[in-house]
Amino acid sequence: MSGNRLPVRELTGILKAGGIFLEEPMARHTSFRIGGPAAVFAEPAGEEEAAALLAFLCGEKIPHIVVGNGSNLLVSDEGYDGVVVHFGKNMGLLAETDDGFRAGAGFMLSALSRAAQVRGLAGLAFASGIPGSFGGACIMNAGAYGGEMKDVLTCVSVIGSDGNVRELAGEEMALSYRNSRMKKEGYTVLSGTVRLTAGDAEEIAKEMEELAEKRREKQPLSLPSAGSTFKRPEGYFAGKLISDAALKGARIGGASVSTLHAGFIVNDGEASAEDVRSLIAMVQARVFEMSGVLLEPEVEFLGNFRTPLMEIRK
Ligand SMILES: Cc1cc2nc3c(=O)[nH]c(=O)nc-3n(C[C@H](O)[C@H](O)[C@H](O)COP(=O)(O)OP(=O)(O)OC[C@H]3O[C@@H](n4cnc5c(N)ncnc54)[C@H](O)[C@@H]3O)c2cc1C
């Protein structure tokens, strides 16, 4: 379906309070600061509008993707010829429960972590430096420094490709390393509940500051990236394999392997999406030659790319 044949009028009818933007540059919505235009960029105002929009897009088989803060996303240079549904602050309701929060998918994970600290609730300090939305974190089972969403997430409200909204709880979410049932089965997360434990606000703040300091020391936070480019292969560390293959500082166009943390590819010179993709493929090939380990990207791709990646058939 070509962008100019997308049913913009119908979409405008559904998103009465939200917004529709045409040919929206995705570079504005990704932490890589890279990406061509989305034919349609839709911002629902709340869960109800989001559910109606997604039910329509699924029912009409219109190509679409839901994105949060774009912090784990590489969008191709030519962009996306479909509807990008953005869950941002319009989808960011937050309600307190007795032992935690109910959060909208667009709420920022770092802000949720801060809200927990202020209430003296422990369990989300690990998430304070992860620059994703709550929904993106649920899908990816985001984690850091020994914690992950799986430890605190009790249930999510999702919408499936049949347009029906349902609740998935506990084991039903099948949260595993950077994966979930929602990701595998293409569910969109609308909101979710985290359960935390009583803690001391000052101690939690101290822990968060220590973790932030670790990130500042070890990660290239001043340059656009999508965090760790690759998943951690079992029994190894991606960053170590990459630096052992002498790839620190390796460059294609404006993309380079960070000299501070080889696990990050950074955009340090107006990189194109294809530069990043080619560098990912080059790192995969070189690390495989040197160690026999195939690195699987953690970063998600949207749109068409010329450079193929190495894959394990599952
Ligand atoms: C500097 C930096 C540091 C990082 N550190 C970490 C870290 O320590 N640990 C870690 O796990 N990650 C880290 N990340 C990666 C990233 O922040 C996480 O993966 C985060 O969970 C992605 O959330 P997002 O909202 O940005 O998702 P997006 O990038 O917008 O989307 C990622 C994927 O999730 C899907 N998605 C997003 N929202 C929804 C939804 N509501 N329903 C269904 N699908 C959805 C998208 O379609 C896409 O496939 C880091 C990134 C950066 C830039």
Helices and strands, with pairings:
Elements: H1 8-14, E1 19-25, E2 37-43, H2 47-59, E3 64-67, E4 73-75, E5 80-86, E6 94-97, E7 100-104, H3 109-118, E8 121-122, H4 134-140, E9 143-144, E10 147-148, E11 153-159, E12 165-169, H5 181-184, E13 188-195, E14 197-198, H6 201-218, E15 225-228, H7 238-244, E16 251-252, E17 255-257, E18 264-267, H8 273-291, E19 300-302
Parallel strand pairs: 2-5, 3-5, 4-19
Antiparallel strand pairs: 1-2, 6-7, 7-13, 8-14, 9-10, 11-12, 11-13, 15-18, 16-17, 17-18
Bound molecules: flavin-adenine dinucleotide (FAD).
Structural account:
The chain is α+β, with helices and mostly antiparallel strands and about 325 residues long. The protein is about 25% helix and about 25% strand. The chain has helices at about 10-15, 45-60, 110-120, 135-140, 180-185, 200-220, 240-245, 275-290; strands at about 20-25, 35-45, 65, 75, 80-85, 95, 100-105, 120, 145, 145-150, 155-160, 165-170, 190-195, 195-200, 225-230, 250, 255, 265, 300. Strands 6-7-13-11-12 form a five-stranded antiparallel β-sheet. Strand 9 (about 145) and strand 10 form a beta hairpin. The two termini are about 30 Å apart. The structure holds flavin-adenine dinucleotide. Flavin-adenine dinucleotide (FAD) binds next to strand 3, helix 4, strand 9, strand 13 and strand 15.
Which percent range fits the helix content?
25-40%
Annotated CATH topology of the largest domain:
Uridine Diphospho-n-acetylenolpyruvylglucosamine Reductase, domain 3
Mean pLDDT: 96
**Strand-and-helix sequence, N→C?**
HEEHEEEEEHEHEEEEHEEHEHEEEHE
